[in-house]
């Protein structure tokens, strides 16, 4: 069987003949969004960093090493593990971009560290990340799913949960600091990471849906059960991780709401319905504003938000609009 | 008089978030076709529901199918307002297509929601559309 596969003629990728338009759409979006940490003036955060207590500093560094671990996994194991499952050659190319950007993300946290922290603090935090049972438990749960021989669609589920859910217990903190006008340059960098992860979760979720729709009803049910049970398992770990990190600042309950909100979005990326009801998923407005500055939620119907909007220049390609 | 809800027109790519929202909403709706040679021509007032596909600079936010639809002046004549969708994780470009269309067509941005929307979004949009539909009826009468 293997010999037969090896006799297949190697094919050059032709971007002028697409099997799935979404591959090009996402390739374009990812490449236009390319960035490096050097673009962000992190050192402007030094005065702000100095206003944090020792505990707040330690928490921040720990949260960022936790995020570094997830990015490292996605760069070296996650995205490469999805490549052999790719349906189109263009999907493989997109995954190489995803893998590389995860390396950029992982590298960015070290830029933050070298700007703000001492070597001793950095080493201590990396030691913590290797020893923290909850962080290691979530890494293991994901890595087990990525293992060779596992179901390609289950790998995509794990990947979407990592991209769209597991990062958020960590992303909460820089958004929280930003909402209090602290570490705002660091927050700008984190927003670039969040933007990338959103495209990754969307794309891998989209590819999951293409595979899922080909299954019979029993196959779909099995996979959906798997997704929800993995979500419960990860949610349980995230709760403990969140409590350990955020209890002292009194932020745990607020972070948990953010987890519910993101768990629902991760499930939506897979095409599934939300798990957590609205009353436990409504994120505090300051955090939402930190996520998407200048884009308040509009509800003209109930009279909140401004009705006729923006005087700001909008990016449209004029040739596309006749009027 | 039939149900007071205004007609809905929407676009949804193959990832299907907006389509799932519309399905849960359970109201009469027309999906804009992807194919360049197919056109939708509206003859009565409607609300447009539009997702966002912007890059980091906001380019390409409004899907081509929606631009084609709005380039028809008759369709623009009947548009009552727009509901924009997106993902807050895209920061400033969240639901940008809704904002662009509102400005271009000089109609209100009625509502924004993320991905396939929450149960709360469904309730709010339904009741908002009902109010809007009623006010349309009374204006027409």
UniProtKB/TrEMBL annotation, chain A:
InterPro entries for the chain: Ferritin-like_SF (IPR009078), RNR-like (IPR012348), RNR_NrdF-like (IPR026494), RNR_small (IPR033909), RNR_small_AS (IPR030475), RNR_small_fam (IPR000358)
CDD domains: RNRR2
Catalytic reaction annotation: a 2'-deoxyribonucleoside 5'-diphosphate + [thioredoxin]-disulfide + H2O = a ribonucleoside 5'-diphosphate + [thioredoxin]-dithiol
Positions contributing to Fe cation 1 binding: 71, 102, 105
Gene Ontology molecular function: metal ion binding; ribonucleoside-diphosphate reductase activity, thioredoxin disulfide as acceptor
Active site: 109
Residues given in the record as Fe cation 2 binding sites: 102, 163, 197, 200
Required co-factors: Fe cation
Enzyme Commission (EC) number: 1.17.4.1
Pfam families on file: Ribonuc_red_sm
Cellular component GO terms held in the UniProt record: ribonucleoside-diphosphate reductase complex
Listed GO biological process terms: deoxyribonucleotide biosynthetic process
SUPFAM superfamilies xrefs: Ferritin-like
Cofactor, free-text remark: Binds 2 iron ions per subunit.
Presence of the UniProt keyword DNA-binding in the record: no
UniProt entry keywords in alphabetical sequence: Deoxyribonucleotide synthesis, Iron, Metal-binding, Oxidoreductase
Family, similarity comment: Belongs to the ribonucleoside diphosphate reductase small chain family.
Function: Provides the precursors necessary for DNA synthesis. Catalyzes the biosynthesis of deoxyribonucleotides from the corresponding ribonucleotides.
Oligomeric form and interacting partners: Tetramer of two alpha and two beta subunits.
Protein name, entry field: Ribonucleoside-diphosphate reductase subunit beta
Native species: Cognatishimia activa
Gene behind this protein: nrdF2
TrEMBL record, chain B:
The organism's place on the tree of life at top rank: Bacteria
Transmembrane segments: none
Family, as annotated: Belongs to the NrdI family.
Function: Probably involved in ribonucleotide reductase function.
Name of the protein in its database record: Protein NrdI
Any one GO MF annotation of this record: FMN binding
Originating organism: Cognatishimia activa
HAMAP family (UniProt xref): NrdI
Pfam families hit by this protein: Flavodoxin_NdrI (PF07972)
């Amino acid at each position: 069987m293997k010999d037969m596969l090896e006799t297949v003629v190697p094919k050059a990728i032709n971007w002028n003949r697409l099997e799935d338009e979404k591959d090009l759409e996402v390739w374009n979006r990812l490449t236009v969004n390319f960035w490096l940490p050097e673009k962000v003036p992190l050192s402007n955060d030094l005065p702000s960093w100095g206003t944090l207590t020792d505990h707040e500093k330690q928490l921040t560094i720990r949260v960022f090493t936790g995020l570094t671990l997830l990015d490292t996994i996605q760069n070296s194991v996650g995205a490469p593990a999805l490549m052999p499952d790719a349906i189109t050659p263009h999907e493989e190319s997109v995954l190489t971009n995803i893998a590389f950007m995860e390396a950029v993300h992982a590298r960015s946290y070290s830029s933050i560290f070298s700007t703000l922290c001492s070597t001793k603090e950095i080493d201590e935090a990396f030691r913590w990340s290797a020893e923290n049972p909850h962080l290691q438990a979530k890494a293991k749960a994901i890595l087990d799913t990525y293992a060779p021989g596992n179901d390609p669609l289950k790998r995509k589920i794990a990947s979407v949960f990592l991209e769209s859910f597991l990062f958020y217990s960590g992303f909460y903190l820089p958004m929280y600091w930003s909402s209090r006008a602290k570490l705002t340059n660091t927050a700008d960098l984190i927003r670039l990471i969040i933007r990338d992860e959103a495209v990754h979760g969307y794309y891998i979720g989209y590819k999951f849906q293409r595979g899922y729709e080909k299954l019979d009803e029993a196959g779909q049910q099995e996979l959906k059960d798997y997704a929800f049970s993995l979500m419960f398992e990860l949610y349980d770990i995230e709760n403990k991780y969140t409590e350990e990190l955020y209890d002292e600042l009194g932020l745990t309950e607020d972070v948990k709401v953010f987890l519910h909100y993101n768990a629902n979005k991760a499930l939506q990326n897979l095409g599934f319905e939300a798990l957590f009801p609205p009353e436990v998923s409504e994120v505090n407005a300051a955090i939402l504003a930190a996520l998407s500055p200048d884009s308040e939620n509009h509800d003209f119907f109930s009279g909140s938000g401004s009705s006729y909007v923006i005087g700001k220049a909008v990016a449209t390609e004029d040739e596309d609009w006749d009027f | 008089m039939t149900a007071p809800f205004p007609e809905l027109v929407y676009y949804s790519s193959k990832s299907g978030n907006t389509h799932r929202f519309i399905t849960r909403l359970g109201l009469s709706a027309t999906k804009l076709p992807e194919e360049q040679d197919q056109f939708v021509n509206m003859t009565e007032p409607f609300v447009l529901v539009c997702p966002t596909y912007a890059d980091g600079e906001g380019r390409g936010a409004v899907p081509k199918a929606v631009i084609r639809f709005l380039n028809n002046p008759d369709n623009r004549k009947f548009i009552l307002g727009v509901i924009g969708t997106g993902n807050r994780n895209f920061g400033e470009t969240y639901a940008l297509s809704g904002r662009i269309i509102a400005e271009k067509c000089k109609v209100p941005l009625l509502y924004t929601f993320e991905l396939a929307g929450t149960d709360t979004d469904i309730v709010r949009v339904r009741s908002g559309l009902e109010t809007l539909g009623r006010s349309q009826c009374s204006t027409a009468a």
